[in-house]
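Protein modeling request. Please complete all fields; requests missing the sequence field cannot be processed.
Requester role: graduate student
Desired output: 3D structure, C-alpha cell encoding
Chains: 1
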Amino acid sequence: MYKMQIESEEDCLRPMNCQLNVLSRSDGSAMFTQGDTAVVTAVFGPAEVKPQRILIDKASVEALYRPKTGLPRVHDKMRETLIRNTCSTALLVTLHPRTSISIIVQEMQDSGGLLACAVNAACLALINSGIAMKFLVAAVSCMIDHEDNILIDPNSKQLKGSKASLTFVFDSIKKNIMACHTTGRFTQLQYEESLLKCRNGSDKIFSFYREIVRKVHQEHDRMSPTCRT
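Delivered output (229 residues):
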C-alpha cells in the first residue's frame, strides 16, 4: 500500500475485479470491485412495462440504488438519477419500444469512489445482459487535497483529507463527458486538470472491460462443442 502511494498517484487506479452472472434470475448481473469498494448490479429487461411508464418510441429505463443498510437517502437518489441518465444515453433504447429496462444497484462496501464503482458495475451488467448499446461508459473519481494535489481513485481514508471530490463518466468512442458530479470548492484550472487525469484513467477501465469480454468469449468457446462438417 505504501509503495502505491509513493508512485505516480495521479495515474493509479485501485485494483479492479469483476464477476459476471452472479445472480441467476436477472437478465444480466455483475459484481464489481475497485479496491475495497464493492457493488452488485442486476439488469432486468427488456420486459413488459407498466402502462403509466410506457414510451411509444423507446424503452423506459429505470435505476434503483440500494444502500448497504437502511433506506435510500438524498445522495442515493442522486446516484439513481445519474446511473439512469447515463445508461439511457448509452443504450439503444429505440430498439425496444414499449418495454422497460431496470437496473438495480446494491451497495456492498463503500471504501471511496462508490459512485464511479456503481456506474462501472452497471455498465458491466448491461454488457452481460446482451442489450444493444451505442457505446460503453466508464466512471473515474478523483480528489483535490488541501495542498492542491489531484489524486485519482482515492479510498475513503484519503478522501478525509480532501477539499473537493469529482466524478466523471466518459463514453468509449470519443471519451466525451457523459455525466459529472462534484463536491467542494475548486478552480477552473483544477477542474480541467482533474478532467484530463480522469479521462486518461478511463482508458484503463475500458481496457478492463475488453479483457473481461475476451475472457467470457474464450470460456464460451471452450465450453461449446466443436462443430464439424
